[in-house]
Amino acid sequence: MPVFSVVIPAYNNSRYLPECVHSITSQSFRDLEVIIVDDASTDDTYVTMQQLAAEDERVILLRNDDNSGTLTTRQHGVTASHGDYVLLIDQDDELAPGALASLHAYAQEHPADIYHYGVRVDAATNAARDAAAGMTNFLTPMPRTLQGEQILATQFAQQDGFDWHVHHKMFRGTLARRAYTMAPHTRLLLSDDLYMCFVIDALADSYAAIPDSPWYVYHLGRGETLGSQLTLDAFSTLAARDAKALRLINAFVAAHSEDIHRSDWDARVADVRDRLIEHTMNEWQDNLPASDKPTGLDRALRCWPPDAVCGELYRYVRDYAYAYLVADDRGSDSSQRNREQALHYLRLAQDIEHRYAEPSSVRNDHYRALKAIAMQHLTDSGLVSRPANAPQPKTEPDTESASVPRHHSPITVLRSLFERIAYHRTSN
Q: CDD domains recorded for this chain (predicted)?
């Protein structure tokens, strides 16, 4: 059995695949297998794979009969692997020289189920160079160890979580194969990373984030146009994928909550739901043209329940209302824009609540909390009237509950940017 199994899903990308594979086969640590899985490419990808296999007997070729998406393609490769450890690499990225030797040395000293290592971002365009530093920051893990239930509870937390991508992580082989065997045979792209991280976290006993480990080379800007706006169809696909990931997670919990014992399944699913709908609605807010936003909102509501969508709208209300509340000059142009935006998103949220008759007893604490603080900021700033029986406002604004505006915080912007890039790189 090899020490490392490196799995590469491939689809219509013969241009960069040799560079990716050679970065692995040229590693100083030689005890490995490279499993390339062709997702029914229509170009010369499989011919390129055959050439790579002829060069090095450690390269193993697999091929899907039909185009099946990233989840099934990775599943095909991982379940066929034999290594003590499994790594997943995207077809146009690389491993840095010495990465496997460094990972092996660290694993020998620090046994764990999941190893999270860092990224070096190589920018291919001027726009990518502008984003590279922030992307590196976003993808570089905070050095720490986590045990048992802490892993899943931390990864999708609102604060101090870690990214939900399966590349630049190394998994114990038995864990990876068990997790991918438990996954359904279904088509899922982009959001399959989040889904599989949830499953792997639920099964894992230990996690280690490695300090000073920029061993995954991420090529930013290869074949993508950064900063471009979404089309309605692309947004609809993205929203549907996010929602499907949540359905699969709910199905996984329903099937395995009795054999995987933990007391916080509801809270962990809620964490994932909140991160997924946040991603969907940030794409709607930041990347759809203004003329497409009304239709885009209706399409989001086809995929997501009204309370989830309204929660995100109230997040925008909260942020804009807070910015207006704490402004030194409420008559300034920027303050007036914040005022208009707060009231605009309030109308959108209330219209959805009216149309769908959202019950006050809905079991979505995130939605209820966001609505409560949004309404607090609106009344504190005088943008809406305070009900006669409402409690008196705080004497100081609640600086912990909002920022100016929080939905454009660096981590959220980078997460959305990364997901946009991943969408283009895996849109097969």
A: Glyco_tranf_GTA_type
